[in-house]
Amino acid sequence: MELFKNIKILDFFRFVVIGLLLFSNAVYQNTIHQLLYYEIVSAIFIITVVYVLIKTLTPGKFMRVRLSRKFLIWILLLFSFYTFHYFLAPQNKEISVYSMLSQCVIVLCIILWLCDLEYEGAFDVFVFSASIASVVISLYYVYYSIGDVLLLNMRLGGVTDNVLSNINYTSQIVLMISSLSLYKIFFEKKYNKLYVIIFFIQFLFILLSGTKRAIISLPIFYIVFILIKNRRSFFKYILPLTIGLGLFIYLLLNNELLYNIAGERLEGMFYALGIVQDNKFDIGDNSTNIRKELFNTAIGMIPETPIWGRGLGYFETHSGLNTHVQIFHSHNNYLELYLCYGLIGFLMYYSIFFRTTIRLFRKKKKSTMVYLFLAYFLVLYVIIEPSSVTFYTLPIYYLYLYFAYLYSWKRDSNMPNPDIPVQKNQNQV
Q1: What sign for the dihedral angle of Cα 22, 26, 29, 35?
Q2: What is the pLDDT of residues 27-41, one digit of tens each?
Q3: Residue 156: exposure state from Cβ atoms within 10 A (0-12, 13-18, ≥19)
């Protein structure tokens, strides 16, 4: 394949570093392989430091974009604040600071391996590396839990004896990467067939994971892309999309395997939100009911939270909910961030998210990549952040933000024409 013929030694190392970091974060973190996870991240960090030193001493511009430096400074300041704050809150249940810092290291390493490339080249390398990593992640989960899926009608990662990481977090990683693969399928002809195969695997993984937020989010990306791709005949696709979405929901609720894996969880969510009425979901361990209880408890803890917060792990330690179900956090990034780090930490984190979103909205020329990032922020703000905690657990969101942040500052005159494929040199994938 032309793709692999054009890969040089440095490109290969980039693929390995990015893929290995994303894979280990998805499958080894918070499992019996936690030590191996730390070893992988530490080893790649050392290699990255050596690489940066060599590149710095080599003639030429190592970091092409000044904005990359600004983003790296923001990441370092943010996690420095997290770490400093962590040691000032000894009253909370201990949460590993090393696990939290490993997220920062992953983001730094990946950006440092990409920042000497032009934007389009860095984006392509990241998408390809992440897509391959997502396939390996999917196959890894299938290997360990396909028996549970076929024999017990359980979701992937249902019974793993702590061998696999939390499937809800892993599915979010695959979800974000799948949106990038889907973007390649819709808007770039190069290697289109390869990304079709990759996306099919990603889609099956998300479906079998039974993760509600991922199953709901993926169609949003698909609908946005198909409407932008066919924006001149927008209304022609409304009916087919509606029928297709309805058919998808029908299969989830009526196919026995899909219902047991994902349909019942979605139906339970609809019940908890008051959309459907069914007494069989009037139970305390319905995940959406639990999240409603977590949300209400976290809301009640806001008045006692000072402007600098109560420290990492405050909700878990003081919510009083760990007596009947294992709770690690409030399952709401907005509330968890505010409770942990107060208004100061909340603004430090979301300032760059909100500023990037506003800059993308204000762009006069809306390229397809602008819509990609706006779809990302839509899913993030409306679905992901209200239902999970991401600020210290999932580096994929920081990496997605990095590319959105850089693109938001690109001048409209420098934007690639969305209808003309970008010409790349042989060092770019």
Answers
A1: negative
A2: 988 788 889 999 999
A3: buried
